[in-house]
Amino acid sequence: MNKGLLVAGAVLGCLAVILGAFGAHALKNALDAEAIKTFETGVKYQMYHALLLLFVGGSSFLSNGTKNTILYLVVIGIILFSGSIYGLATNALTSFDFKKIGFVTPIGGTLLIISWGILIFKFMRLKIN
To answer: Distance (Å, rounded) from C-alpha 23 to C-alpha 56?
Structure first.
């Protein structure tokens, strides 16, 4: 499981860098400043959670079951949260109206919050000083 977490964290981190560069360069002239700022929010949250997966994958304090749960919550959360933000930010450039699926953004955010909540709960139960 640790390998899967580490690979997922590395892939999501790499994609965050690529998407960040894409937003800063390719979208700079195509979107207004507010849309670019929105796009960057998706990139930031994706990177934060990629780093979380790397941390969880390298942790010896968590069971494999907990790690697996966090992996799925974070990956699905990033897809729904950051993915919908990318779509909403670039809505003017596509024929699909991403506002129709904007309701998934808070669902993804909730999954990310739950993953942090599980981590907090598990760390509070640790029997270490």
So the answer is: 28
Given this model, what pLDDT does residue 129 score?
Answer: 72
The predicted model gives 90-110 an average pLDDT of 94
Closest CA to 120 of 57, 58, 56: 56
Contact 23, 36 (CB under 8 A): yes
Q: How many CB atoms neighbour CB 120 within 10 A?
A: 10
Burial of 129 (0-12, 13-18, 19+ CB in 10 A): exposed
Q: Is the pTM of this model over 0.85?
A: yes
Q: What is the mean pLDDT of residues 53-65?
A: 95
Report the candidate in 76, 73, 58 with the shortest Cα–Cα distance to residue 2: 58
Rounded Cα distance between 37 and 105, Å, is 16
